[in-house]
Amino acid sequence: MAKKSMIERDKKRQRMVDQYAAKRAALKAVANDKNASVEERFKATLALAELPRNSSATRVRNRCQLTGRPRAYYRKLKISRIMLRELGSNGEIPGLVKSSW
Questions:
Q1: For the chain, what is the domain count?
Q2: What pTM, to 2 d.p., does this model score?
Q3: How far apart are CA 71 and CA 81, in angstroms?
């Protein structure tokens, strides 16, 4: 189980990403627009730098929804490998069969 503080920190970051997503997208569009003037692009870049760092989507860590484990995360299922194995062994994941030979 991951530390509660780290799980909460990631939740806070995700809320900030959702809050600033539209503003970041608009500023990035202006900054990357080759037809805009150099001054406009520079102002957009400065405004983008003024936004909180935690509003960037790259700062959010993928975590297991059951345990909060940050590593060995399966995106499709949103759980870690350990929970995948445990749930699969219990027969709680449809279509997953534990192999044995």
A1: 2
A2: 0.79
A3: 9
Tens of pLDDT, residues 54-90: 999 999 999 999 999 999 999 999 999 999 999 998 9
Rounded Cα distance, 63 and 11, in Å: 10
Number of H helices, E strands in the chain: 3, 2
Q: How many alpha carbons fall within 13 Å on the CB side of residue 13? A: 16
Judge whether 64 and 83 are in contact, CB under 8 Å: yes
**Pair (38, 71) in one structural domain:** no
**What's the CATH number where 24 sits?**
1.10.287.1480
CA angle 58, 25, 43 (to 5 degrees): 105
- 6 and 48 co-located in one domain: yes
Q: For residue 62, give the nearest of 24, 17, 26 by alpha carbon.
A: 17
